[in-house]
């Protein structure tokens, strides 16, 4: 890129940042405006959980969270539509294998803990799912070609589980309850836990599958691609063994 | 308020740095890194805005937005990286074909695999 143009862009971006800083400062020192925070804390007893962030995510703004899960799913579908996954890395050394063996069960256990604790303390589906996804990344780095995920058919069920359970609960509530994703107070906690469990599995599977970087290995594509993912690549031999 | 302003200003600074990097650098990978830094700046700002003074409970709404935003940003980055690697593979293939049609025998028959990210 042209040097002068880069300088001009730098100056314009600096001016923009100064404007943003001024707006931010004016907002902080200005009169306090009505915010959603106090309302969220006030309604907490009716939400079914006692941690405000979880209440915001799964109750007040459940629509938003549902759509975010859909975004995750669409991103993964985009990755899968690009073709088969590149082959894995070379086999892990003994140290990494042992490390993975130690960390994986702990990560899965911690993920379950985070899921449960989300009801009353920092935690919840997104943290738990991110941890599960990172366990998958570790497995893939340690040489597992599918990042610990099951075969393709089961993988498809896993990645849609979050959106599917969320939508089903919402539609059932719309049909027999008070409205779409308006939980009855008595069962709100259990509905939220059900949705969060499915969302955790879906987020973990989606992130791990996204890291794999293509359609799950070992799947025949309907139109055979001219370029096989592993042909001629010396690092792919181990993966079949 | 002071801590919130400093933290939020750092977020705005990160956002501006990321925006500059995104606009100035040509390679897609660099653009993607700049884009992620922009996102981190926005997350910083949201966390700073949620601060309600020492000891008071923070505003949960921005926290929830950041929480989902991080996971969505990670998945969008994965999609962009996958697109980038396919683009590079396609570009390598095209330059191979071009070299082949010009009859350059010294060129390796399939260099696409060597240029492919991340199997490299």
Automatic annotation (TrEMBL), chain A:
Domain of life per record: Bacteria
UniProt biased composition (Low complexity): 221-241
Domain Na+/H+ antiporter MnhB subunit-related protein: 96-204
Membrane topology: Multi-pass membrane protein
Key words of the record: Cell membrane, Membrane, Transmembrane, Transmembrane helix
GO terms under cellular component: plasma membrane
Region described as Disordered: spans on this chain: 220-241
Membrane listed as a keyword: yes
Coiled-coil annotated spans: none
Similarity comment: family membership: Belongs to the CPA3 antiporters (TC 2.A.63) subunit B family.
Matching Pfam families: MnhB (PF04039)
Name of the protein in question: Sodium:proton antiporter
Transmembrane segments: 7-28, 66-83, 95-118, 124-142, 154-176, 188-212
InterPro entries for the chain: CPA3_antiporter_subunitB (IPR050622), MnhB (IPR007182)
Localization annotation: Cell membrane
UniProtKB/TrEMBL annotation, chain B:
Keywords recorded for this protein, A-Z: Cell membrane, Membrane, Transmembrane, Transmembrane helix
Pfam family, one: Oxidored_q2
Region described as Disordered: 95-120
Annotated transmembrane regions: 6-25, 32-51, 63-83
InterPro entries: CPA3_antiporter_subunitC, NUOK/Mnh_C1-like
Superkingdom of source: Bacteria
Intracellular or extracellular location(s): Cell membrane
Cellular-component GO terms for this entry: plasma membrane
Membrane topology: Multi-pass membrane protein
Similarity field: Belongs to the CPA3 antiporters (TC 2.A.63) subunit C family.
Name of the protein in question: Na+/H+ antiporter subunit C
Native source organism of the sequence: Halochromatium salexigens (Chromatium salexigens)
Lineage: Bacteria, Pseudomonadati, Pseudomonadota, Gammaproteobacteria, Chromatiales
